[in-house]
Amino acid sequence: xxxxxxxxxxxxxxxxxxxxxxxxxxxxxxxxxxxxxxxxxxxxxxxxxxxxxxxxxxxxxxxxxxxxxxxxxxxxxxxxxxxxxxxxxxxxxxxxxxxxxxxxxxxxxxxxxxxxxxxxxxxxxxxxxxxxxxxxxxxxxxxxxxxxxxxxxxxxxxxxxxxxxxxxxxxxxxxxxxxxxxxxxxxxxxxxxxxxxxxxxxxxxxxxxxxxxxxxxxxxxxxxxxxxxxxxxxxxxxxxxxxxxxxxxxxxxxxxxxxxxxxxxxxxxxxxxxxxxxxxxxxxxxxxxxxxxxxxxxxxxxxxxxxxxxxxxxxxxxxxxxxxxxxxxxxxxxxxxxxxxxxxxxxxxxxxxxxxxxxxxxxxxxxxxxxxxxxxxxxxxxxxxxxxxxxxxxxxxxxxxxxxxxxxxxxxxxxxxxxxxxxxxxxxxxxxxxxxxxxxxxxxxxxxxxxxxxxxxxxxxxxxxxxxxxxxxxxxxxxxxxxxxxxxxxxxxxxxxxxxxxxxxxxxxxxxxxxxxxxxxxxxxxxxxxxxxxxxxxxxxxxxxxxxxxxxxxxxxxxxxxxxxxxxxxxxxxxxxxx
Length: 579
What we know:
globular; alpha+beta
């Protein structure tokens, strides 16, 4: 009865206040959704120095774009919301702040960005609604919820493109077994837009305003503890937070023979190393590995200017503004070690760690990284590390599509020649014209002379010429020879007939190497269509990526566009924090 009276009171008082912002019906729907969910949350666990309450947030007229029904069902939210996508979208309009037990908040944290300490940063556009009851408890957060005390010069908003990129890619990462935050839904405003200068060249555009609702066991970052370097910091609050994290997520450190702080850094180093190894194995570039974008749980957070490798380049730079390649594909392990050192120095200052670690962190990280990466690549290629190294050298020289080349390995048999292997992968390799663009991109000439989204649509489409195939064969011949020699030993050791062995092997490799990957152009096309009111490209993309290893079960008739690398009719896109 008390809850009903409270609900009626809010309808009477609150909906009158916002009648100019949304219709009465929409307000009642939002309140209904919020009340139904109120008993699923615990009061926010952190208050005081580390968080600040958020009173006003949300966007007008939220409309559902895509909703993760399966995840909502596991959370117990879907039934509570009467299986209503609109009710899910209404969570992004800020009405939840009126609910009992919920105290929406944003977090304070610091950060080292591109090598330099930036002081206090905080959630500039993220608002946490609360933490769910049950085990494991999950924090539910809105990204793009509006201004917070930490927004600085920003508007606290997200674009539809950035929300769709995070939704699709975080769910893809989860599907292929990489630790990540989870997406709940994306909602777009039916009446509001945001102004963005995507590549910081002074050209602003109005684009759809959106919010992504996401979840994680925690959104605590390395940078949270770098608050220890800020004048007036609350050391007691930071120490208590570390104790809570250790108790919940690093229980083996509670009664460790070494200090809790040392144990925490050791375990986090191994977790972070394995995470980066899993990124490298699937060709993922995070692109903005500042300490405020890295999780203390060793999971993937903050999907910003990331990209999944298409035409292979070990030095691939995904972020348009990363001039020096600090966060390039091959520098990710270096960046993570740097971040771990920064975290350890902060913990030393708090008095919970004896020393900053330095070389010990690098050695422990590299050992864990190498072991995990070799294991993952051994599974993906089904061979020894020297042969994997030969594969990577051939990929670097030829720039062939990373995902599709690995997928093709399942078709290799003892009868495969270098020429037949080249025929197999040549559709996934750049033409000579495209190689020019790729070389320009590698030399960063593109930033000066070619626009942010540079296309080769004006270049006539043509297959690889004979001389180009010969050049490709010269790159791949050493690998093919080593690979076949390795396979011969595997066949002999298996006790199977060659036919049976290679049939089983193809099935095994196809279960390890995905056929589909969230390509930048597919994400942009889905976003552009959704902005125009057509959700079918987004739903098709989500469907294909829900089972990225299987090319036969998709409901989509024409899956060719989902497996095509950048071609003469496509674009090679650079991303930025504005993406």
